[in-house]
Amino acid sequence: MLGALRHECAAGVLSLRSRLLAHPGRLTELSMWGGAPASVQASAVHLAHTGRFAYTVGLGYAYRRGLPLPNADLPYSQPDPDLRTNTDRKLFHLLSRVQTGQAGRRIGVTLFHLQGVQGVAPESHLNPLVSSVRYWRYPLQQHTLAILSGERATPFGLLEGAFWVGLFRQHIDQYRDVRYETREAREKDEDWTVGGRLVGRRSVGDGQARLALNWVGSRHGQRDFEYDEAGRPEAVHPPTLYYQQHLLSVGGELVQPLGVGLEGSAGFSYDAMLTPETGDKPPRDP
Length: 286
What we know:
Layout: E1 5-10, E2 13-18, E3 25-35, E4 39-49, E5 53-64, E6 89-102, E7 105-119, E8 136-154, E9 157-175, E10 183-204, E11 207-226, E12 240-259, E13 262-278
Antiparallel strand pairs: 1-2, 3-4, 4-5, 5-6, 6-7, 7-8, 8-9, 9-10, 10-11, 11-12, 12-13
């Protein structure tokens, strides 16, 4: 996935942006690597610029049979002498972006999807006969994200904005023992996230003034299933618990060069959080 992205850092914030060709043309990149024991990763990225539109498409796959086991004291839940128990992983991702316009008047759409399956190493320092050990697996992990972004030059400066919608789903299975055969419990999670960001930039003398407004709203739904000793669910439709929060922030910054390689800055910020739904937990005030 990183082959289709580039990053920028400003004011302590890391921004990931899709790679795009700056001039008309086409570029395709293929990469593949493997390691011992039993790991492989492959990716393909295609970039094109037609003069009016620029687009990027990237996809990749990663497989790992397990993490190599170092010399460690793991007295329990570690039957394999070479690979750490339950550390296998499979991941697939797809990223695409199309953009039109030019600097100062540009709009684009980005789509991202990731799907995976993986295990979590057990707590091998705990004796399962006397302690509760987490024998977890993630049989489903999905993350889908759509982003609409753009910029526009105005008489007051450059205005940049982005709006996104995301869906994250995962299942967490708890097993009875290190064989990972009989399921004891399952947690089903579904998270919807909606957000927006607006940033204004304006030259002030030799420096720059920036104003940013951010809002993110997220709702988490969770259902917990219990299973009997034969691996059968004890309840077909358990209740769903909902958790919701909203984060709002506004901030400004003025940066000015001071000469002799020095730069000064002053800024302000305000943050607020709301939690309208708290599941089975006590409500919280803003």
